[in-house]
Amino acid sequence: MHLLTETAMGDSIHFEVLSFEEAENLKKELSLLTNRINSSKRKLALEMKLQEAALSLSRLPDGKSRRDSGDSIGEMSPRSPRKRMNFFGRNSWGDHHRSDSELGISTRKCEELAQELWKLERRAAELRRRLLEHTAGVLQMTHKGLKKKPAASNNFPRNQSSVHGSLGARENGVHSGPPHDFDDRSLYRTADHLDEYGRAYGPGGMPHLLNGETRSFDLTAIHNTERKLEEMNNRLRQMLLEANLDGDVGPIPTSLYNEQSLNPVARVEAQLDYLERNLSSMANLRLQEPTEETNGIPQFVYHAEEKLEEMNMRLANILKASGSRSPLASFPTGPRRTLQEQLDYLEPNIDNIQQRVESLAEQKTILTTQIQQQRELNSKSDAERDAHFAELNEQISILKKELDMSRKEADDTRDELTLVMDQLDAARQESMIREQQRTEEEAVALSSMKEARTKAEEELSAKINMIAQLENKLQKSSDEQESRTREALAAKESSDKELQKLQSEYNELENEMIRVRTELTMAQAELDSAYGSRAERAAQVAANPAIQKEIDDLNQRNRSLTEEISILRAEQLNNSNDGDGKSGLQARVQMLEKELRDTIDDYEVMTKASIEFEKEREKLETFIDNLRDRCENLESKLCEERVQNMGSSSPSHASGFDRGASETTSIMVLKNEFKKMMRDTRAENMRLLKAEQEERRRLEILIRNLRKEQSIGKSNLSQSTISS
């Protein structure tokens, strides 16, 4: 085993070790490739079955046609046509050629699928090789030999009494094992162990943990934690018994590892509760000790501190080995670690272990749910595959039925041909019998025999002529049928062209209707923007009832046109194959065209009126702006005159010289401030007015652009309306 291990480590020393993200990407790509390979295999199997069916279909008509042609060579009369035809004047060469082309297409598809499957399998093999090299490299880096070397402990006893206490503990059978070393392989593990689930590799793929193995791994970690907690509780109980000889310490909660009915999380929580109770008892015992004994510390305190320190170190190693994500409490430093410090360090570690156990239980529940979902997905994919196979079997049965029907038709044709040949043989036999009779009666009447012979020959020629006439009639009937078919096709094409013409006219009318409706909407929007809010517009309309009546009439006509268009569409669908209703449809189209022209004329009148209203509105706005400017100038002049009057009527002359000068100065300051305020106000008003005018111009430009875009996109809008 040592030789095999060394050889494997030497071989994997140059293997590439990927990062965690690269390894996960390779695993995802391998999973996708595996799914694609499985689907390609199913497609290839299906195409091979179709190829076999096409090959069988190409063989069956070929053999039958050769057999029929061989029979017809010896049985047809010399006057029959040379080409081998069936009863309806059609040969089997077209069907045979079509089956050969289908066979070639199926063969080519099989070759393409096989090539694609080979490329996918080669890529999957490359990914598996890289993942295996990555795994071997990681194991080579983290391998520490088949046997673990005992690690030397750095935790030496602090005094001679603690040395004797530790030796006594070893003699009593309580061994404190060395702390566990940190395993570098834990860096490559995820915290929740969910990355490996949902990836099913085929034979020869990357080895991974199955669902049952992951569950056993989580349960093993829980059992190990429970066992270590039980050992720590046992040691703590012995320490309490040594420290408090008169006290009563409860028994350790027992656990049965082989009983699957018990909850491991509950067992671990019981161990943690027992550990907390004992730690609380030890803390209370430490607090109850008299202060006089602090100078002479008994030996069991050192034993308790050393055992707690050892338990804390083991807890830290357990948490590190289990891959806990929560931050660990800082280990007490210094040469003298008190019992309270050890207890303070132990409590958060116990809480961390409890959280870890709860997280493992949650992971177990999540993994169980994922396994159930994966099973449901697998059962669903199996059901889809079974349905696909059932559909293929149904298609094969349909093909078999069609093949049986073709065979039956061929047999019927052969029977009819045999019946005709039997009739011809019967006629020949009758002629031979008559010839024999004529030879027997030759002695009696040679002249009568000649007449009978000529009569038989005439009958034979008449029958042959009748057969030829029947063949000619059959040919003529087939030609007439073909001519009728061509005439029907020509009539259908002409009717289709006329229908397309009517459809195009209908589409044009509908496009025109949509354009008119769009322009009407734009006109309404312009009217809204030109004449203020809806309430103002309603007030104006109420003041002018003629406009309201005209708008209502236009809306009513628009609704009636829309209803007639829907009625026309329904009639077109019902009478698409009927040629009698075309005249009514054309009349309806003409009527709609007339109504659309009237609507367009009304819309043009409304547009002209809106343009005139817009011009009048601009004139009024210009007049209002001029009046506003004049009002502002007059207000500014009035304010200046008021300020001057205030300055002239002030009682500055009645007071002294100094007071008059100060009041004059204050009035001038106020006057200047007021002028400045008025200038700022006028500038702000002008700025707001300019901004409003620019916004109005921008909206007008936007409306013009929308009109242009609307005129450009009318065709697209009509096409979308027709398609809907």
From TrEMBL:
Keywords from the UniProt entry: Coiled coil, Golgi apparatus
A Gene Ontology BP annotation from the UniProt entry: endoplasmic reticulum to Golgi vesicle-mediated transport
Any Gene Ontology CC annotation: Golgi apparatus
Residue runs in coiled coils: 222-285
Compartmental location: Golgi apparatus
Residue spans crossing the bilayer: none
UniProt-recorded Gene Ontology molecular function terms: small GTPase binding
Extent of Polar residues compositional bias: 152-164
Biased composition (Basic and acidic residues): 61-70
Domain (Up-regulated during septation protein): residue spans on this chain: 1-142
Region (Disordered): 57-91, 143-184, 473-499
Disulfide bond is among the record's keywords: no
Domain DUF7801: from-to ranges: 491-647
Coiled coil listed as a keyword: yes
Name of this protein: Involucrin repeat protein
Source organism of the structure: Ajellomyces capsulatus (strain H143) (Darling's disease fungus)
Taxon lineage: Eukaryota, Fungi, Dikarya, Ascomycota, Pezizomycotina
